[in-house]
Fold this protein.
Amino acid sequence: MDKAALHRFIMHYERLTRHMLTEMPERADLVLRLGTSHQVDAVSINRWPTTKTVVDA
């Protein structure tokens, strides 16, 4: 991958990321806001899920 292709690749995913950061907080059930040190600063619960989710450890 040359420098121009790498730049296009990065810009594509940056646009997707910025779009999702704008749109998804309203659609998500739960939003975790991260601070500058990547620690959770705030939690917003938009809807409490009505189905049980099981996660295997």
Remarks:
- The longest strand covers residues 40-45.
- The chain has one domain: 3-45.
- The first helix runs from residue 3 to 27.
- The chain has a mean pLDDT of 88.
